[in-house]
Design goal:
Elements: E1 10-16, E2 21-27, E3 34-36, E4 42-48, H1 56-59, H2 67-78
Parallel strand pairs: 1-4
Antiparallel strand pairs: 1-2, 3-4
Length: about 80
C-alpha cells in the first residue's frame, strides 16, 4: 500500500445521548471530543441524534398507517372504475 494516502482507521465511540447508549467501533471519522470507555482507555467520541436504541423501527414504537382502509373508503364513496 502507498503511504499517506489512506485515512486513519481507528477505534471511535458513537454515543446516543437520548437513549443513553454507546458503542465502540472502528471508523475514519475525525472528532475533537474524547471519552473514557469501559476498558479504561480514552477514545474519540461522536454524538449521534438517533441510533438503533432510539429509532422507532428498532424499538417497536413505529406506527403503521392504515392505507388499505383509506383506499376502501374512497372506493366505497366513489365506486371502482371498470
Amino acid at each position: 500500500m502507498k503511504t499517506d494516502i489512506h485515512p486513519n482507521y481507528d477505534y471511535v465511540i458513537f454515543r446516543d445521548k437520548s437513549a443513553d447508549f454507546a458503542i465502540l467501533t472502528r471508523s475514519t471519522i475525525k472528532t475533537d471530543q474524547k471519552m473514557v470507555w469501559e476498558d479504561g482507555k480514552e477514545y474519540p467520541l461522536v454524538d449521534v441524534e438517533i441510533s438503533s436504541a432510539s429509532h422507532p423501527f428498532y424499538t417497536g414504537k413505529q406506527k403503521i398507517m392504515d392505507v388499505g382502509g383509506r383506499v376502501a373508503k374512497f372506493e366505497k364513496r366513489f365506486g371502482k372504475k371498470a
